[in-house]
Design a protein that fits this description.
The chain is of the alpha/beta class and 136 residues long. The protein contains two helices and eight strands; from the N terminus they run E-H-E-E-E-E-H-E-E-E. Strand 7 (114-119) and strand 8 form a beta hairpin. The radius of gyration is 16 Å and the shape is globular.
């Protein structure tokens, strides 16, 4: 077997172009619980990077006139971003998202993984995932 061209150590960041940067920043900090990162320079009004474990989520002010290319089902391109949560917190987080009026699109508890899919303010598909067998 040949050596890979790139040897990764994980996902560094995922960046989303958003319609309203401040509204999205509020959603990702107050609903998802991410914090503005000290690791990366911030450009208020243009972009923010938020800590998500060892990775970052980038929020970039998009131009709504350019049309949408959402993380969604169907077509080509990105589909969703998943945030890992502890199994013991999964149901509590699901209820909290519903109470915040977040649009929930799908939920399933399988033996190995539990998933809840929901939408951010721009309609990007997000997920929280728990791994019950790994969290025991």
């Amino acid at each position: 077997m040949t050596s890979p061209i790139i040897n990764t150590s994980g996902i560094d960041h995922v960046a989303l172009s958003v319609r309203d940067l401040e509204k999205s920043l509020e959603f990702y900090t107050k609903v998802i619980g991410l914090k503005i990162s000290d690791r990366e320079y911030q450009k208020p009004g243009t972009e923010y990077f938020l800590d998500c474990g060892t990775s970052l989520i980038g929020l970039i002010q998009g131009n709504p006139a350019d049309g949408a290319h959402l993380l969604q089902d169907g077509g080509l391109g990105g589909n969703h971003v998943s945030f890992r949560v502890e199994t013991k917190d999964f149901d509590k987080f699901c209820e909290a998202l519903k109470n915040q009026g977040v649009i929930i699109t799908y939920m399933k508890k399988r033996e190995r993984s539990w998933s809840l899919y929901f939408l951010d303010p721009d309609g990007n598909k997000l997920e929280i995932t728990a791994w019950p067998l790994e969290d025991k």
